[in-house]
Amino acid sequence: MDNSFYGQLNVFQTIAQEGSISAAARKLEIAVPSASQALKLLEQKIGVPLFHRTTRNIQLTDAGRQLLERTEQAMATLHQAFEEVRNFGEQVSGTVRITMARVMYQLVLRPHLAEFHQRYPQIQLEISLNDGLSHLIEDGIDLGIRFGNRLDEGMVARKLLNGTQEGLYASQSYAAQHGTPKTPKDLPAHKLIGYRFISSNKIEPLVIAQNGQETAVEMDTPLICNDPEILLDATRQGLGIGRAFTHNMQQQPDRTDFVPVLQKYWRQYPPLYLYYLQHSQRTKKVQAVIEFLLEKTAQYR
Prior knowledge:
Keywords: DNA-binding, Transcription, Transcription regulation. By secondary structure, the chain is α+β, with helices and mostly antiparallel strands. It has eleven helices and 15 strands. β9 and β10 form a beta hairpin. α1 (5-18) packs across α2 (21-28) and α1 (5-18) packs across α3.
């Protein structure tokens, strides 16, 4: 393998991840013609086209898809090795990409952004908010946060928060005007602030824990949103009953203005975990973020 093969393969994988040559060039901080030439040389070397190209998009061929699948893990290992050596004995620096749902950002990261920047001014955090599950290698992500520790092979999970409940709350004004349900059978007579997942575009049903089982309840929804802050705002203003994780509710300065509803039926969620590829914590910049998040959430475990 000649010394240009690694660079060409890196360009190929970045194009596959980013979906275009120009986007890959921006990410790699090289000129678009250079990225295009690297791909051309790689295809000439292999002897088959790796992408189908049109004026509007670029898609992997069968050969390109196979090459990507067979080299992703190896390239990730090489990237990590280079990063470890580059950071050896130097100030911690570089970009760390992290993905999580918006509510997890509010729980874990938002209160500590300024402190992290002060402690590690040379680390650039790139935060991606996503309700779905991300494939760290394919998406070029270093760290992810999600409920539960069921992971793919080669991943590591570290607990950030103990399990939490999805609480039901009403505002004082809503409770005064409409009362609050006393049993789950009373719920359909009330209004619910709806929540739509960004990634799947599906509306999350209201689920309660009853007789050891989770049960979905149909309710009228005067408002549907895809942001936890909007959901809380609508609840504050008395539009209906809203949902919030108990950890998140504890962070609200006006939490005493929210009336808990049917607390014995609240749904239980598993602990919140930080997950990443095995050995990626050896990279100083990634290890710094891991240790910082574990430090800031220690009081909740």
